[in-house]
Amino acid sequence: MKNNYFFLSLAFFSFQFSFAQLNYTCDMSSGCGQYWDNNGFVDNSSNYGGGCDGVGLNDNVWGSGSSQVVGAWNSSNILTSHAGSEITLSFKTKLTDWYSPYTDRTSTEWGNLKVYYKSSTPSEASPGTLITTINSSSSCATHEVTFNPGSTISNLFISFIYTKGSGDNMFWIDTLSIQEATGPSISVGSAITGLDYNLGSGPSTSQSTTVSGSSLEADITLDAPTNFEISTDNSSFSDSVILTQSGGSVSSTTIHARLKSGLSVDNYSGNITASSTNATSQTISL
User: Fold this and answer.
1) 72-91: per-residue pLDDT in tens?
2) What is the Cα–Cα distance from 90 to 109, expressed in whole angstroms?
3) In CATH, which of 1.20.140.10, 3.30.1360.40, 2.60.120.200, 3.40.50.300 is domain 22-180?
C-alpha cells in the first residue's frame, strides 16, 4: 500500500512540474484571439485579405499622429506559467492595403515593429522591456526571438507596437507561439565597461552586472578571464565564485568585476563565463 501511494505522489509531482513551463500558442481565431484584441485590434478576422494562416489579428495603421502607431498585448492572467527560464517567441506578420483588392504591402510600405515584455499591463506609452525591433519584413514572414527575463514572471505580458511606414494599411499578427525552454537555464545581465586605472594605482574601480538561474541541477560557477577578478560582495575578489542554487533557482545576484592590480599599460578584455551542469554557458563581456 505504501508503494502505491508513493507512485501516485510522484505522478502528481511530475505533472505539476511540466505544467510550470510556459507553453502557449494562438492562431488568432476567436478561441484565443479574444485575449489579444485590445486597443483597437480585431481578432478572428478574415477581412482585408485575411491572416497568414486563415484568420488573424489586425488593426488599421494610417495617416499621422496617434493613428500611425498601433499596439496590441495580451490580457491579464493568460501567460501565467513562466518558471523563470528563457522564452522563445515566434509569430507571423504582414501588411495589406485598406482598400480592395487588399494588395499585400509588406515589403514596400513596412514601417517598424517593436516587441516588448512586461510584468504588468502595458500601454503604447509604457510597453515594457524591448525584446526586438523588426525594421523590414516579407509577407507572412515568421519572426523568432529568444529572451530571458532573468526571474520568474507570474503574469507575463507581450506587447507589439507597430509604427507606420507609408500607406493606409491593415497590420496583421498571426500564428503566435510563446515557449519556455525546459531544463537548466542561466541568465546574465549587461556587459561591463570602464575597468581601467592609472599605471601603479590598481586595481580598477569595480563595476557590476547580474546573474540568475532557473531549473538548475547544480550551482552556477563564474570564472573570470585572465587579468580580471570577480566578487559577490564587492569586497573579497577572486578568479572564480560559486552561486549556490536553492530549489533549482539562483535569484538575480549582483556580480562585481574589476581589473587586477600590477598590470602594465595595455588594452585588457575578456569574458566572465557562467556555467552549470546541463545548462548552456553564458558570458559577460569585460
Assistant:
1) 999 999 999 887 778 999 99
2) 22
3) 2.60.120.200
CB atoms within 10 A of CB 156: 23
DSSP 55-103: BEEEEEE-SSGGGGEEEEEPPTTSB----SS-EEEEEEEEEEESSTT--
Sorted by sequence, the CB contacts under 8 Å of residue 163 that are 6+ apart come out as 61, 68, 69, 111, 112, 113, 114
259 with 195: CB under 8 angstroms? yes
Q: What is the pTM of this model?
A: 0.66
Say which CATH topology domain 185-285 has. Immunoglobulin-like (2.60.40)
The C-alpha atoms of residue 63 and residue 164 are separated, in whole angstroms, by: 8
